[in-house]
Amino acid sequence: MRMEDVIVDTPAPLLTAAGATSVGRREWAGLAVLALACLVYSMDLTVLHLAVPQISEVLRPTSSQLLWIIDVYGFMVAGLLLTMGTIGDRIGRRRLLMVGAAAFAAVSVIAAFAPSAPILIGCRALLGVAGATLAPSTLSLIFTMFHDASQRSIAVGVWVGSYSVGGSIGPLAGGIMLEHFWWGSVFLLAVPVMVLLIVLAPRVLPEFRDPDAGRLDLVSAGLCTTAVLLVVFGMKKAAQDGPGAAAVSALTAGIAIGALFVRRQLNTSEPMLDLRLFRLGSFRTALTINMVSIFVAFGYALFVGQYFQLVLGMSPLRAGIATIPAGLGFMIGSQLGPRIMKVLRPAYMISGGMAMAACGLLLLTRITATGGVELTIAASLLVSFGLAPVFGITTELIVGTAPPEQAGAASGLSETGAEFGGALGISILGSISVAIYRNQLDTALPLGLREPDARAARDTLGAALDVARTMPGTVGSAVADAAKHAFLSGMHLTAAIAAGAALLLAVLAMTRLRHVPPG
Questions:
Q1: Which residues, 6 or more positions from 177, have their beta carbon under 8 angstroms from its beta carbon?
Q2: How far apart, in whole angstroms, are the C-alpha atoms of residue 225 and residue 2?
Q3: d(Cα 375, Cα 226) in Å, to the nearest integer?
Q4: First-to-final CA distance of the chain
Q5: pLDDT score, position 74
Q6: In a domain, 7, yes or no
Q7: Which SS3 state, helix, strand or coil, does residue 15 take?
Q8: Is 423 helix (H, G, I), strand (E, B) or coil?
Q9: CA nearest neighbour of 110 among 191, 166, 171, 192
Q10: Same domain, yes or no: 243 and 288
Q11: Which 3 state secondary structure label does DSSP give 6?
């Protein structure tokens, strides 16, 4: 690697006892800028949910268009993460981050004033393209800036915590904006942050590119993006409508194209992704734990918001406030993790965190339809506090085992695995919950209900509550109570499944990562 390929104009660094460079104020300021980018990236995944009622009223999208408005951002992010990480290694990670931030700000303004549902769908897709540049760029820059192991662990903890903060304050910030402004105002939250990033990035962030990288393999990039998009679409389609022809076809095509991508990587002299990384046991185990832990997170995040608003009748703003303790737990856990890891092996940290998350998930199996706010908040706090250090440790293992010139691709692979974990959580846990909900309502709905009303009630909990409001007093109450109890039955089982997965990860970490030393 040539010195001119890494632009660092900080004062001469100090040396730690281990001989690694100790960073100064410029690097910590750069970390703050990167954390802001991550916060906005994750906030955009959740901030739109509370605006759905107003979007439905003003733009009048079809049910299919509404699903695309919500999902297309995640689709594009998942499909392009690995490609964007590879591009950043070639053109410069800071440059890609700034281009993505500028695009994110510009498209956010257009989305805020979108006059129709198709235009809003297009804007959300472009936001996904821009968002895909942020995650791998920020993570790989952290590994460029922080060479000391303890400082890098703290930096990765901040990086992980910023995602949690963004996801947690998204509903709260969206609720506040929607109390005073129109639905499009939720998109404008990102604009000042991205402008600040563009201004500060050249001053506090170094540039890094792989001097030996060849041209980007456009065929490989196309195969990778197409495969991920099809698999994620198939998973979400199965979660929404069951394992129908569209879902199975998408999954089959995605797996086949993914196989072509792998074959091309093995046979080319300049692979987009060096698959030899998978020969490293720590890399494989960390990637698996990271992906499945995201799956576990969806074991409760998928249902808690609905429980607060639809079962307990809380307003969106109150529901957003109720998620704050979980966000704080994630922040504290992500910062304590690197400090504890100085004296404790990662295997013990991961196992303990997953066991704590399992306890929180099992608490969710005890909540009822008549109360449970405090118990749900406590359960969410345990889950988030337990998972926070797991995300940081596994992310560091994934990217840290890759050569420096492939840090962007490795971080993209880490983020892609996380997106797959989330998609699997929605698909598998969502499908199980829906199946239990519909099966229970087949026998629990009151007799004499009109077939169109019964069919609508069996669709979703929200639809069942809408039907209940049109019914006479006792009948409406019976429909609402049956739907709430059916929803809770599905929530209890999926939380128990997620708890079992967490315990399996605890065992996997203890048996496969025990050789990794503290620090």
A1: 185, 186, 189
A2: 31
A3: 42
A4: 27
A5: 72
A6: no
A7: strand
A8: helix
A9: 191
A10: no
A11: strand
Residue-number span of the structural domain to which 299 is assigned: 277-519
User: Measuring CA to CA, which residue among 253, 283, 498, 508 is closest to residue 399?
Assistant: 283
- Examine the domain organization and report whether 290 and 383 are in the same domain: yes
Query: Which amino acid is present at 226?
Result: T
Average pLDDT, the chain: 77
So what's the pLDDT on residue 67?
66
- Residue 214, exposed/middle/buried by CB under 10 A (0-12, 13-18, 19+)? exposed
Structure-block tokens of residue 219? 């065929």
How far CA 279 is from CA of 258, 285, 314, 392, 509, in Å, comes to: 19, 11, 49, 22, 17
Q: What is the pLDDT of residues 262-289, one digit of tens each?
A: 888 888 777 766 677 777 777 788 888 8
225 and 190 assigned to the same domain: no
Instruction: List Cβ neighbours of 150 (8 Å cut-off, separation of 6 or more).
Output: 338, 342, 519
| CA 163 – CA 169 distance, rounded (Å) | 10
**Is residue 434 domain-shared with residue 307, that is, in the same domain?**
yes
Collapsed DSSP state (helix, strand, coil) of residue 322: helix
* DSSP string across 141-179: HHHHH--SHHHHHHHHHHHHHHHHHHHHHHHHHHHHHHH
| Long-range contacts, stretch 26-32, CB < 8 angstroms, 24+ apart | 26/204, 27/145, 27/146, 27/204, 29/200, 29/204, 30/141, 30/145, 30/204, 30/205, 30/206, 31/142, 31/145, 31/146, 31/155, 31/158, 31/159
Strand partners, 208: 6
Q: In sequence order, which ranges of 92-148 are alpha helices (DSSP H)?
A: 93-112, 117-145
What dihedral do alpha carbons 118, 120, 122, 128 form, nearest 10°? -150
What's the alpha-carbon Rg for the chain, to the nearest Å? Answer: 23
Token pair in block for residue 3: 């010195």
Strand segments, DSSP code E, in 308-398 are none
Cβ-based burial of 332 (10 A; exposed 0-12, middle 13-18, buried ≥19): middle
How many other C-beta atoms can be found within 10 angstroms of the C-beta atom of residue 69? Answer: 25
Rounded distance, CA 291 to CA 295, Å?
7
Q: Residue 154's closest CA among 327, 340, 339, 411?
A: 339
pLDDT digits (tens, 9 = 90+) for 456-499: 777 777 778 878 888 777 888 888 888 888 888 888 998 899 89
Structure tokens at 310: 């639809």
CATH number at residue 486: 1.20.1250.20
- The CA–CA distances, whole Å, from 167 to 40, 162, 170 equal 9, 9, 5
Same domain, 282 and 378: yes
